[in-house]
Amino acid sequence: MRVAIIDYGSGNLRSATKAFERAARESGLDHAEIDLTDDAERVASADRIVLPGVGAYADCRAGLDGLPGMREALAEAVEKQAKPFLGICVGMQLMASRGLEKSVTQGFGWIKGDVVKMEPEDATLKVPQIGWNTLTLARPHPLFAGIETGTDGLHAYFVHSYHLAAERPDDVIATSDYGGAVTAFVAHENKAGAQFHPEKSQKLGLALLSNFLTWKP
Amino acid sequence: MTLKARVIPCLDVKDGRVVKGVSFVNLIDAGDPVDAARAYDAAGADELCFLDITASSDGRETIFDVVARTAEQCFMPLTVGGGVRTLADIRKLLLAGADKVSINSAAVRDPDFVAQAADKFGDQCIVVSLDCKQTAPDTWEIFTHGGRNATGIDALDFAEAMVKRGAGELLVTSMDRDGGKIGYDIALTRAIADRVPVPIIASGGVGTLDHMVEGVRDGHANAVLAASIFHFGTYTIDEAKQHMAAHGIPVRLD
């Protein structure tokens, strides 16, 4: 099995790669190849695809579009062939219809809804949300198998000012409470996305990445 | 609210080595920042901070290697500061595996540098580090070069200006308190925390676990940074968190 992590000049790629390698080892998938690549062909032919992302929405989108054939490769592998896909942070936000950070930027339209600035009801809460928060599971999902959620559950690491306001409630798998419900995890068919950083979320993160490696949507 | 207050150990790194010794038991090489990082990762630190105090430009390359090796082994958030002057510096640190970079002197010299960095890499990964000294009651001034150079800039005004330019977080260090073990400058921390909409990390002066409680409860900080009390094994990360939890501060204990 080969997992393509798309390298489009958005930081933090080493952490994502190393976390996947460790998750693969821990789930006995020693044969899994974690392939950090900017080559559209390698993405199209991979078994699973990961889109990380740190930075501004428009900047990330431009970086991705700057890779020849990458958008087509994603359409083929993820939309047509329905290969398992995981977006992380801005990589997850790119799954939305549009991003409204600084300017209006088109997303992939896989999860209907806009990426909007967080406005916590409690005015003392700071934006960005930076730090560890628990998750509330809206419905069961294979990527959360064996992961304790809820107030007494494990924590996920968030760093974000914007979140995906999904139009279809069914697409929202998990939320976190930050002066109101903030979208923490979305999924639709073979496409999943985490607003938090599984590659930085220690126990919860490694368990989620392991689940992704064996996920059969 | 379920976002937890963060406990952040900070390591001073010079030419790729930890400067103020770290005296953990079970540490193979106390001078190796990567070993120290691994120990803090296992101990449940919420985030780790490297401050590169390497003076020579030759030695500055070592921090990239330290960050890269740390990111390979520790799946926790990492902030790196010290000598961050250009967008290329930031890009290299992020590519090596840092999640956030902390900008100090360069922000004072050229506030627009912060704006450029935030536009390029996103507000969330730009931390501006404020070294503050009290100059009058309820008045603090920004200093640079480890507290040696006065700038004449009011700390509260500067904090606000940095956030307007896109700083996603402020690391507020009291130079009066740093190393003194008498507690954070609570008035300073609270004045800045209440002035700006972004998270604040309190720094400088921790000597007891009560100080960490005060930083969050009274100083309104979202995170508390400490160096020597952890490095010298005075307290463990877990003791700090248990103490904070006992005083009603939500912390992550998993």
Automatic annotation (TrEMBL), chain A:
One of its GO terms (molecular function) is glutaminase activity. PANTHER family: IMIDAZOLE GLYCEROL PHOSPHATE SYNTHASE SUBUNIT HISH. Gene3D superfamilies: 3.40.50.880. Residues 5-213 form the Glutamine amidotransferase domain. Its EC number is 4.3.2.10, 3.5.1.2. GO terms for biological process: L-histidine biosynthetic process. It is found in: Cytoplasm. It catalyses: 5-[(5-phospho-1-deoxy-D-ribulos-1-ylimino)methylamino]-1-(5-phospho-beta-D-ribosyl)imidazole-4-carboxamide + L-glutamine = D-erythro-1-(imidazol-4-yl)glycerol 3-phosphate + 5-amino-1-(5-phospho-beta-D-ribosyl)imidazole-4-carboxamide + L-glutamate + H(+); L-glutamine + H2O = L-glutamate + NH4(+). The lineage of its organism: Bacteria, Pseudomonadati, Pseudomonadota, Alphaproteobacteria, Hyphomicrobiales. The active site is at residues 89, 197, 199. One of its GO terms (cellular component) is cytoplasm. IGPS catalyzes the conversion of PRFAR and glutamine to IGP, AICAR and glutamate. The HisH subunit catalyzes the hydrolysis of glutamine to glutamate and ammonia as part of the synthesis of IGP and AICAR. The resulting ammonia molecule is channeled to the active site of HisF. Pathway: Amino-acid biosynthesis; L-histidine biosynthesis; L-histidine from 5-phospho-alpha-D-ribose 1-diphosphate: step 5/9. Heterodimer of HisH and HisF. Keywords: Amino-acid biosynthesis, Cytoplasm, Glutamine amidotransferase, Histidine biosynthesis, Hydrolase, Lyase, Transferase. This is Imidazole glycerol phosphate synthase subunit HisH.
Automatic annotation (TrEMBL), chain B:
It holds the Pfam family His_biosynth. SUPFAM superfamilies: Ribulose-phoshate binding barrel. GO terms for cellular component: cytoplasm. It catalyses: 5-[(5-phospho-1-deoxy-D-ribulos-1-ylimino)methylamino]-1-(5-phospho-beta-D-ribosyl)imidazole-4-carboxamide + L-glutamine = D-erythro-1-(imidazol-4-yl)glycerol 3-phosphate + 5-amino-1-(5-phospho-beta-D-ribosyl)imidazole-4-carboxamide + L-glutamate + H(+). It is found in: Cytoplasm. GO terms for biological process: L-histidine biosynthetic process. It is an enzyme of class 4 (lyase). Pathway: Amino-acid biosynthesis; L-histidine biosynthesis; L-histidine from 5-phospho-alpha-D-ribose 1-diphosphate: step 5/9. The active site is at residues 12, 131. Its EC number is 4.3.2.10. Heterodimer of HisH and HisF. IGPS catalyzes the conversion of PRFAR and glutamine to IGP, AICAR and glutamate. The HisF subunit catalyzes the cyclization activity that produces IGP and AICAR from PRFAR using the ammonia provided by the HisH subunit. Belongs to the HisA/HisF family. This is Imidazole glycerol phosphate synthase subunit HisF.
